[in-house]
Write a structure and sequence with these properties.
With 238 residues, the protein is α/β, with parallel strands linked by helices. The chain contains seven helices and ten strands.
Length: 238
């Protein structure tokens, strides 16, 4: 069974007297352990698809199954619970709490899950070490580089052991060298068994994935293996 199964998914938005067809009866299947990039120009439906995959929205019609659960039928509270359990988000702008250190930022999703303080701390320290930040756990965001802040965001996304790591333009606010480091981190996470869905408009970033889904005008224009993903390089962690 596929981890994600979208069947005849349509998403319409009514704006005044006009109906916008953001997605038009698309079919996508993503298996556990895949590394997929989603691409498309402005207005292609890329952001709408990301919101659906991230359980931030539901389709107007069609069926969307995540881990065997029909997301299409859920209300907002059920979506929030599923989102917290199944999906780890990595955003372009990091979305870290500026006055909290890396450890507290990573612990935050576990507070909502009801985990004890001792177990929260243990798990947060594990994932910070996993992303190469064992020596930065008590640093606040303004005391870290952009690459380190994004690593904290990745650790926070991983702390609940989600089924999917959903990354939206994860290198958008980083210089090219630091962006390379983050993409190498995603490569390592994928090789360790994480399912990664990467939303990007950059071909160079998308080539790191093993499969690229391209959208145009709300339709899947192509869905193919990546023709030449970037090779893995070893770079020092700043």
């Amino acid at each position: 069974m596929a981890l994600l199964q979208l069947t005849q998914i349509t998403r319409r938005y009514v704006m005044g007297s006009e109906t916008i067809h953001a997605l038009r009866e698309i079919n996508i299947s993503i298996d556990r352990g895949e590394y997929v990039a989603i691409m498309g120009p402005s207005g292609s439906g890329k952001s709408t698809l990301m919101n659906l995959l991230g359980c931030l929205d539901t389709p107007s019609s069609g069926d969307f199954f995540l881990n065997g659960i029909n997301v299409s039928l859920m209300d907002d509270n059920q979506l929030a619970e599923l989102r917290n359990r199944e999906i780890g988000f990595v955003f372009q702008s990091f979305h870290l709490l500026p006055r909290s250190d890396a450890l507290h930022n990573v612990e935050l999703p576990l507070i909502y899950s009801g985990m004890t303080h001792a177990l929260r701390r243990k798990r947060a320290l594990e994932v910070l070490d996993h992303v190469g930040l064992a020596d930065r756990v008590h640093h606040r965001p303004n005391e870290m580089s952009g690459g380190q802040r994004q690593r904290v965001a990745v650790a926070r996304a991983l702390v609940n052991n989600p089924s999917i790591l959903l990354a939206d333009e994860p290198t958008g606010n980083l210089d090219s060298h630091t962006g390379d480091e983050i993409m190498i981190l995603f490569e390592e996470l994928w090789k360790k068994g994480n399912t990664i869905i990467l939303v990007t408009h950059e071909e160079e970033v998308a080539r790191h994935a093993r499969r690229i889904i391209r959208l145009r005008d709300g339709l899947v224009a192509s869905d193919e293996p990546s023709s030449g993903h970037s090779p893995v390089r070893t770079l020092p962690i700043p």
